Amino acid sequence: MIKKLSSLGSLEEVFKRRTSIESAMESAKRIVDDVKVNGDTAVRKYTKQFDGVDLDSFALTEAEIDSAFELIDYETLEHLQHALDNIETFHSLQMPQSDMWLTEVSPGIRLGQKYTALASAGAYVPGGTGSYPSSALMLIIPAKVAGVPEVVACTPPRKDGTIHPLTITAIAMAGADEIYRVGGVQAIAAMAFGTESVRKVDKIVGPGNAYVTAAKMYVRGAAEIDMPAGPSEIVVIADETGNPVLIASDMIAQMEHDVNSLAVLITPSEALAKAVDSEIKLQTSSALRKQIIEKAGYVIYVTDDLVAAAAACNEIAPEHVEIMVANPMPVLNGVRNAGTIYVGEYAPVAAGDYASGANHVLPTGGYAKTFSGMNVMQFLKTTSVQYIEKEGLENIRDIIVALANIEGFDAHAKSVMKRFS
């Protein structure tokens, strides 16, 4: 579908494609509340109901983890290790230079910040019928780099009660301390409140369907979350120099995720718009996941210029942005709202999904306006430090006393004055 983008209001076609979690919230609340009260019993009930598995225990044993490694070929392990190394390197660069800093802002007053890792974190790794080792690496490695001492992982079991050995291997290589064969809303609830078998955590991270996302939003009083993460999204900003074959390929790569995925091209070039439209139809005809891609659909917008294209992208605030233009820096500087940005013809989203090292767990559904993607700061708390000497307090004494009295807090004023009486 090619449309002329005359105003940002014309983006309604994009917004109506997005999946709302509101319809899933009531069901999520019911399950969460049940797990909160009944613990393991409720988790078992919902695992049997939704996954078709009657489990005796949730935690994987050391023997099960060791067996999983034995089932993975050496070449695959090497690929996982290489990806792990890149992800670890990138996230290590995000760490503050020291655990604490102090600087003198005026005589006798030193202010600073102290960084402390969360005590525990829980990673929700998608699974069940498929295996997503890349997600395990993206969720657990930043927590470990940040210094979180306890990291657990929940992932849905298969019909026989097992977890795909590749998923187990990736979770273990990333450094998780516990692996639970629990998925869905019941996994989020178990990590948020704790059960007889599943550890309670301070923060829950990881993508999931509308019900998992709704559960994460609902439990925020008991455990913090990373971000709302739903169906995959991509916005490609391209000019007449863009390669229609590559642009179509990258849009299809996101469309194959889910029927609710969103793929958008924004370009000032009508010729490129038509070429990409034709190329998407051509490539879809031979795609392995053709039925999903066709149901997902796509939108192509033609704008007056690249400034308008960046403005439209900011309004959409997508998970992924690709920039394929002759002069990318002005466009890059103009994009404010995005989970992650890829620049250049040789920067497909798939690179970040698996091996470049940047994180692929990102806000979707427009939440990139207010949320950041997964990073080490998700697992660090900042605490301000105030080192004040007599001279420093004396210099601001009159200000404190005056403002405290204006607000009617006499004891505040006296707490300062007593130090000089």
Quick structural gist:
With 421 residues, the chain is an alpha/beta fold. The protein contains 16 helices and 14 strands.
Overview of the structural elements:
- Substrate binds at residues 232, 254, 257, 320, 353, 407, 412.
- Keywords: Amino-acid biosynthesis, Histidine biosynthesis, Metal-binding, NAD, Oxidoreductase, Zinc.
- InterPro entries: Ald_DH/histidinol_DH, Histidinol_DH_CS, Histidinol_DH_monofunct, Hstdl_DH.
- The protein is α/β, with parallel strands linked by helices and 421 residues long.
- The chain has 3 domains: 2-19 and 230-357, Rossmann fold (3-Layer(aba) Sandwich); 22-225, Rossmann fold, CATH 3.40.50; 389-420, no CATH class.
- 45% of the residues lie in helices and 17% in strands.
- The chain contains 16 helices and 14 strands.
- It has helices at residues 12-15, 22-51, 62-70, 74-92, 133-146, 165-174, 184-193, 210-218, 244-255, 270-284, 290-296, 306-316, 328-334, 349-354, 390-406, 410-417; strands at 2-4, 100-106, 109-117, 120-124, 150-154, 178-180, 203-205, 224-225, 233-238, 262-267, 299-302, 320-324, 340-343, 380-388.
- Strands 1-11-10-9-12-13 form a 6-stranded parallel beta sheet, with helices on both faces. Strands 6-5-4-7-8 form a 5-stranded parallel beta sheet, sandwiched between helices.
- Helix 8 links the parallel strand 7 and strand 8 (224-225).
- Helix 2 (22-51) crosses helix 7 (184-193), helix 9 (244-255) packs across helix 10 (270-284) and helix 15 packs antiparallel against helix 16 (410-417).
- It starts with a strand and ends with a helix.
